[in-house]
Amino acid sequence: MSRSIVPEAISRQPWQMLIPLCCLVSLGAAVLYSAAGGSLQPYALSHVVRFGIFLVMAVIISRLSRNLFRLAAYPVYGGIVVLLVLVELIGAVGGGSQRWLNLGFMTLQPSELMKPAIVLVLARFYETLPQAMTASWRGLVPAGLLIGLPALFVMIQPDLGTALAICFGGAVTMFLAGLPLWWFVSAGAAVMVIAPVSFFTLLHGYQRNRVLTFLDPESDPLGTGYHITQSKIAIGSGGIFGKGFGNGTQSHLQYLPEPHTDFVFATMSEEWGLMGGLFVLFVFAVVLGWGMNVARRAPDRFSSLLAAGMTATMFFYVMINLMMVMGLAPVVGIPLPFMSHGGTSMLTNMICLGTIMAVHRWSQGRGSLR
Amino acid sequence: MKIDFRRWLRPPHVTTGTLRNSFDRRTVVLGTIQGGVGALLAARMTYLSVFENEKYKLEAESNRVNLSLIPPRRGWILDRHGQPLASNRADFRVDVVPEQMKDAERTIAELGRLLSLSPVDLQDLQDKLDKAHGFAPVEVATGLDLERFSAVSVRLPDLPGVVTQRGFSRFYPTGPSVGHLIGYVGAASAEEYEKDHDPVLITPGYKVGKDALEKIFEKDLRGSPGARRVEVTASGRIVRNLDTREDVPGKTIKLTIDAGIQDFAARRIGLESAAVVVMDCRNGDVLAMASMPSYDPNSFSDGIGRLEWKMLSEDDHVPLRNKVLRGLYPPGSTVKPMVALAFMEAGLDPDESVFCGGGLRVGNRVFHCWNRRGHGSVNMAKGIYQSCDVYFYHFAQRIGMDPIAAMAWRLGLGHEFELPVVGQSYGTVPDPAWKLRKYGKEWQTFDTVNATIGQGYFLVNPLQQAVQASRLASGKIIMPRLLHGAGDRPAASLGIPQDHLAYIHQAMSDVANGPGSAPNSKLPFPNIKLAGKTGTAQVVGLNIGSGKGGLWKHRDHGHFICFAPFDNPVYACSVVVEHGGGSGAAYPIARDVLTYVFDRQKGMDILTELEKNWGGTAKERLDTRYRAYSAQYGAGAPAVAPEALQQASGSQEPRQPIVSDAQSPAPEPDAAPGIPRADAPPAPASTSTPSGTPGANAQ
């Protein structure tokens, strides 16, 4: 395609990533159409519309300057922490746990926004940190606090999945920032020790059940093991080419819990089979591979950390969700990016995507707004 | 990634370059991990959908498809003309499967409200639930109207474990009349399921035969269940029918019973505790086999409620015992034609007479004739039609017991017949060898004397008496049979000379139509004559009661055996009325039953008139009684022990003591005048009676 015909603003977009992504969203819409019993309402149409809106938002984000990102890092982070506290307060007043704020026109889940925000703030932190201090405690403790504070608030909501996502995004950013390797090794070892202890002390009953069920789903096929078992049945019964569009029985007869959100991949696999599943994995490989490439080619430390952290955050969604539906991880409420129906997760992922696209633009060197 | 161990020992030297370098290396590591996870997921996905595909396909199918058995329609039981004695009728029913109920108490309460069950119903339901195995369905209600049925149906998603069904339930058109003959059905008990692991047994709505023919022919009547495959959602809502395999109804069983005669006989018994058997004496077809009072098999099929149990078990007329097969009675004078045949065979000239002065000294005791005034000169015919005891006392001593016992056997007494029934009590035909075996005592002359008038050790059941009447009438070895179309092999002859039989027939005809003991047993037809023999059997010694009045339990049993038409026998009939006070209670029943057999309208007119005074048909009286019990006891009746029913219906021994002991007879009061019976002339009872104590008579 020639630049003289296609406007530059369009031609310089990363189409090698966007086209597969659009295919994935279309597949997602098709699955949601089927999950709604062959109807655009209530899932498929809003899914596509949201994607459209958030894509525009991502493009706008990608147009923002690097300096704006730098300047906004701490205020955005601080604002979201305040929102998290607010959620806790409202929850305490209202009685019971609450994860979202009702803004009137939409419900906002601040913990979701924290996922890209933690990456942003850490990228900013390590950019400003004198390089010689990277390997000292001053490279570790502030970053640890930046991660720990929101993670703690999310944890007491309680929302284990999101807390883990925040920690994961933060930890990957720290890892890439060049902190000594043995810190991570010893932290990993410490987790190995603490995990069993916290399993019996920190986790809530239902979370503990989910872990136990994950370890032995058949022990309680009608109770908490039900979700995993039914999901595996849906995926396994699909075979290589699936049962055909609209023919999934597990989803249509409500054996599959949450067929349009957390278990959308199982719904898809039942009807599209292994081929559909490999296609989804392929698209994610393209998108995430592109994200890592952008990070590697980024012009400076801030943008490379930013792009890599955002990619890692998206990767975490994909990994945990797919492992969960295939019975490799406990049931945690994490949706599959670009396929699950749900505004907040789409928003988060599109923020991540937009940020990577921004880094992509910066590294192309044509960004005049720096 | 190359690991430099020295870096770990000294503070690392960090510059922009080293950071950039480590970033590049670490992104590669991260990318590799991501790729690894992706490969892992792809492998896992392939494993699930390719290698475990078959397993999960099956599981998805078993999720989706719900297979439910349709209980087979039970085979009908028909009478000889094809009229149903037991059929099925379509109904709406509700069952619960205990182990599937989430909150049993709430579910039951909700069902009670929706179906408007009474406290008694709820209590019976609770009893059934307590006894039930978790997987076996328990019946809540049957025969529901559409309104109540749908009220439950629409709430099914909120009531796990509740099953609603359109099905068929067993129906016995004549109710109590066929109770003992046909039996009843009920949900399979845990023991029955242990024995027979047919899954249809635990299908909601399936009933197994619990008694009599229903039990004997269970396998034939069962049929094979149909199946319905439906697609269901996770919450159990049925989305659509996939396919249905119709059930195969059980085989139809055709009986020799005539439904009309059976029902008439049962109803004609009225308020008495009695048994009636009607047979075709040409081929042995049992036309009616009624034992009353009875239970209503229709109301037993949902299990036996406490109140029902209390009502039936407290009745001294033992409605739970089939008296035709399990009732044993001393036959009284009904054995006299048989004894007379034995005399003739032994060479006694029937014209040889004896003088009856009202009693006969045997050994050191005097045995009385029922008629204390005596019969004067008595030959064999008069001995039968007047039922003179002295005639038989006299000649029995000459002939001896053994020819008499042999004749009793030949005529069917003491036999257990090959019939599809759950139990027969076959009684006793006493003879010297038997007494020695049983009691280790020598046979005495007075034992013979007692036996010739059907007292002492003699015990028979009403079926044997009907067979005896049939054989007397036909002179052939008639075997009773219940299954229709078993083949018409002509019965072999008994080998009794025709002139002997003719003599006996004439004497028995004279009982009713001549100068006999039961002139009122005459049939109301000019051209059809009945030949019969009366009998009265003592229940207690006369030192306790007279046998005619007083306590019901102390009254004599009434017997009548007969056949008709006397000159060309077709029908034989036996009637036993427990504690009827003498044969006067029995022969009107036999007369009316045979009247009905020959002229249904005429018979029915008589019955309608009688039932007006009795308070309706047997079914109506049973219902009235249940209502009275319900009002009196409500839910306060004690629970039914599981084995109690088995004991009650299966008890071999009659409850009342049978007088089989010659040591304690008592004088027979003069029966001729003065017995105040509305429908009968004086009972010509015949019981041996040395007056007072043996010691007193020895003089």
TrEMBL record, chain A:
Localization per Swiss-Prot or TrEMBL: Cell inner membrane; Membrane
InterPro entries noted in UniProt: FtsW/RodA, RodA/MrdB
Residues passing through the membrane, by range: 44-62, 74-94, 135-156, 162-182, 189-206, 272-293, 305-332, 338-360
Keywords of the record: Cell inner membrane, Cell membrane, Cell shape, Cell wall biogenesis/degradation, Glycosyltransferase, Membrane, Peptidoglycan synthesis, Transferase, Transmembrane, Transmembrane helix
Membrane topology, record value: Multi-pass membrane protein
EC number: 2.4.99.28
Pathway(s) annotated for this protein in UniProt: Cell wall biogenesis; peptidoglycan biosynthesis
GO biological process, one term: cell division
Catalysed reaction, written as an equation: [GlcNAc-(1->4)-Mur2Ac(oyl-L-Ala-gamma-D-Glu-L-Lys-D-Ala-D-Ala)](n)-di-trans,octa-cis-undecaprenyl diphosphate + beta-D-GlcNAc-(1->4)-Mur2Ac(oyl-L-Ala-gamma-D-Glu-L-Lys-D-Ala-D-Ala)-di-trans,octa-cis-undecaprenyl diphosphate = [GlcNAc-(1->4)-Mur2Ac(oyl-L-Ala-gamma-D-Glu-L-Lys-D-Ala-D-Ala)](n+1)-di-trans,octa-cis-undecaprenyl diphosphate + di-trans,octa-cis-undecaprenyl diphosphate + H(+)
Signal peptide: none
Example of a GO cellular component annotation carried by this entry: plasma membrane
A molecular function GO annotation: lipid-linked peptidoglycan transporter activity
Database matches in HAMAP family: PGT_RodA
UniProt family annotation: Belongs to the SEDS family. MrdB/RodA subfamily.
Record function comment: Peptidoglycan polymerase that is essential for cell wall elongation.
Name of the protein described by the UniProt record: Peptidoglycan glycosyltransferase MrdB
Source organism per UniProt: Novosphingobium silvae
